[in-house]
Amino acid sequence: MTAPRESEFVLRGSHVLAMLLAFFGVVIAVNVYFAFAAVGTFPGEDVTHPYIQGLEYNRTLDAHRAQQAQGWRVSAGLEQSAAGAALAIRLRLRDGAPLLGAHVEGALRWPADQHRDRSLTFREIGDGRYVADLGRLGEGDWDLRATATTPERHSLDFEADLRWPLPR
């Protein structure tokens, strides 16, 4: 019979300590990296004064109810144009007649980054249709916020969720 060989490596307390420190060191390093990446890519608040906007929310709801009482109807959509993309809206009165002569302006907002937002000025093309040329538009979901004002100073604020490119 042969005598059992003794192993050259012996797991000691210092080895276990080194393994624990290495493990938690990697975990902490990854957490620090993700924290810096999250803070570094966050563009900030999407609205200028969110607290004040929250306090005035009931006034906003009252204004929306008053606008709904006017009975105006709005439809909005993105269209392919020679220059890239165009945003077309159609405004109708309560009886279905086109709303003519309105001044329409607004903003096309990228939900995650206000630096990609675009101001819009629409031109009337007849039959209650108003168009804003956008040129090249980035892919994804966009939010439209716009206001139509008649010569009599009646106004309508409206919003729409839009997707570009158009689904096929």
How is the secondary structure organized here?
Blueprint: H1 13-41, H2 50-55, H3 57-70, E1 73-81, E2 84-92, E3 103-109, E4 118-121, E5 123-126, E6 129-135, E7 140-149, E8 155-164
Antiparallel strand pairs: 1-2, 2-6, 3-4, 3-7, 5-6, 7-8
Going by CATH, the architecture of the largest domain would be Sandwich
> So what's the overall shape?
elongated
CATH class of the largest domain: Mainly Beta
Oligomer: single chain
Number of strands: 8
Order of helices and strands: HHHEEEEEEEE
Helix content: 25-40%
Query: Ranges with pLDDT <50 over ≥5 residues?
Result: none
**N- to C-terminal separation?**
80 Å
With strands numbered from the N-terminus, the spatial order across the biggest sheet is: 1-2-6-5
Count the helices. How many?
Answer: 3
Rg computed from alpha carbons, rounded to a whole number of angstroms: 29 Å
Average predicted confidence as pLDDT: 89
CATH topology of the largest domain: Immunoglobulin-like
- Secondary-structure-derived class: alpha+beta
Beta-strand fraction estimate: 35-45%
For the largest beta-sheet, the strand count, sense and barrel status come to: 4 strands, antiparallel
Explain what the structure shows.
The chain is an alpha+beta fold and 168 residues long. The chain folds into two domains: 12-42; 50-164, Sandwich (Immunoglobulin-like), CATH 2.60.40.1080. Helix content is 29%, strand content 36%. It has helices at residues 13-41, 50-55, 57-70, and strands at 73-81, 84-92, 103-109, 118-121, 123-126, 129-135, 140-149, 155-164. The chain has a four-stranded antiparallel β-sheet, with no helix packed on it. Strands 4-3-7-8 form a four-stranded antiparallel β-sheet, with no helix packed on it. The chain is elongated, with a radius of gyration of 29 Å. The mean pLDDT is 89.
